[in-house]
Amino acid sequence: MEAQAQGLLETEPLQGRDEDAIASADFSSMLSEEEKEELKAELVQLEDEITTLRQVLSAKERHLVEIKQKLGMNLMNELKQNFSKSWHDMQTTTAYKKTHETLSHAGQKATAAFSNVGTAISKKFGDMSYSIRHSISMPAMRRK
């Protein structure tokens, strides 16, 4: 009994064979003639509404294309606008701001480090130049 009750509470989606069983089930025998007529009328009405909605949607899509053409909007312009909006949206995210801040700070540190290395190298070359000039000029001074 418990296994049957548990089967009624299954949370798994329908499998192909389950869908086939439901589709092949004949529920019409459970309906009265009056209910069948009401459902047939409702079916016809829904099909008519769907047809009307498709026609309205198609007309609106044509109108949309006409307006875009009049405004000079084309696919490339729309792509540019979408890209610009996406780029702006991304730049306003917290993750982007934090990453930008971190990389900017790292760039400043790297710039300072390279500057210090450059200064140290320049100083060494200056010292070497002085040392070379001094060693060249000393013998010349002794000869005098």
UniProtKB/TrEMBL annotation:
Signal peptide: none
Gene Ontology cellular-component annotations: cytoplasm
Pfam families membership: TPD52
Keywords: Coiled coil
Chain spans, region Disordered: 1-20
Keyword Coiled coil assigned: yes
Single biological process term from Gene Ontology: positive regulation of apoptotic signaling pathway
Coiled coil: 29-63
Family recorded in the similarity comment: Belongs to the TPD52 family.
PANTHER family xref list: TUMOR PROTEIN D52, TUMOR PROTEIN D53
Protein name as catalogued: TPD52 like 1
Annotated source species: Sciurus vulgaris (Eurasian red squirrel)
Designated gene of the protein: TPD52L1
